Amino acid sequence: MEKKKRQMNQLIALGVAAAGLALTVFLPWWVYRLAAAVMFICGMLVWRRLGQKRSENDWKNRAEAIHHEWLGILNQFRHDWMNDLQVLYGYAQLKKTDSVLSAILHARDKLAIDGNISRIGIPSLVSGLFALRVKQSPLKLDISLAEDVNLSELPLAGEKIRGVMSGVVTAFCEHAAAVSTPPGNLRLYINVDERHLILDFAYTGGYDGAELANRLERTIKQAGGNLESSRDFRDGGANVELRIPFSA
């Protein structure tokens, strides 16, 4: 309803502006032309203001959606950690020391992966990877970075990195883990050399080779530039290495 009202107000403003413009052309008297010019200017100012208000509302809606997404991620984190603590407490009550140690190591590994994701340095990519980690994902995602690597500090556009990385992860989610029982495991190692950002994906599990290969090919073509890639598809797993030159 609010959107329709805003559109109607914009149409009215444009109508006033158009009427003013028409009067400036067809009326011969300078008084009427002056009044018509004022109508045109006022109409355009109102139309511009309504357009700015719509942009502000769109921005507020996007910000609210992001806030809701992060609240969902935090709630899922809380739920997962409560489950882990309950398991740990149960093992401790039963005095199963080996199981207690195993649960602690599992929690440590989870924290390490989450810490690696937070170090990536591109907010939109960090948000997407955290969402994939905590939601019902068809695969297990494990991310590690070389020391002192922060993607936001590299001479590359953040959106390009996000597009390539999320495109490959999505390809595995849709075409690899979908046919894997139990769910597959996708490990991503992020590194750099003097001229490239290196993304090394290693997947273990079942997958649809033809569909996965096609999707990866589209993702690489969409990335453009001089992106270098090597792909190895085999029974029970696949490896994909992407090298993105800093000049891309």
Describe this structure in words.
It is a single chain. The protein is an alpha+beta fold. It has 6 helices and 5 strands, in the order ααααβαββαββ. The chain has a 5-stranded mixed sheet. Strand 1, helix 5 and strand 2 form a beta-alpha-beta unit. Helix 2 crosses helix 4 and helix 5 runs antiparallel to helix 6. About 10% of the residues have low confidence.
What tags apply to this protein structure?
248 residues; alpha+beta; 5-stranded mixed sheet
Set out the fold topology.
Layout: H1 2-26, H2 30-93, H3 97-118, H4 123-134, E1 139-145, H5 158-175, E2 184-192, E3 196-204, H6 209-223, E4 228-234, E5 237-245
Parallel strand pairs: 1-2
Antiparallel strand pairs: 2-3, 3-5, 4-5
Helix pairs in contact: 1-2, 2-3, 2-4, 5-6
Structure described in brief:
With about 250 residues, this protein is an alpha+beta fold.
The portion of residues assigned to helices is: 55-70%
Beta-strand level of the residues, as a percent range? 15-25%
Q: Output mean pLDDT.
A: 75
Low-confidence stretches: 13-36
Q: Which shape, going by the Cα principal axes?
A: globular
Q: Give the CA-CA distance, first to last residue.
A: 45 Å
What can be said about the biggest beta sheet? Answer: 5 strands, mixed
Question: Strand order within the widest sheet?
Answer: 1-2-3-5-4
Order of helices and strands: HHHHEHEEHEE
Structural class: alpha+beta
Number of strands: 5
Task: Provide a count of the helices.
Answer: 6
Radius of gyration over alpha carbons?
Answer: 27 Å
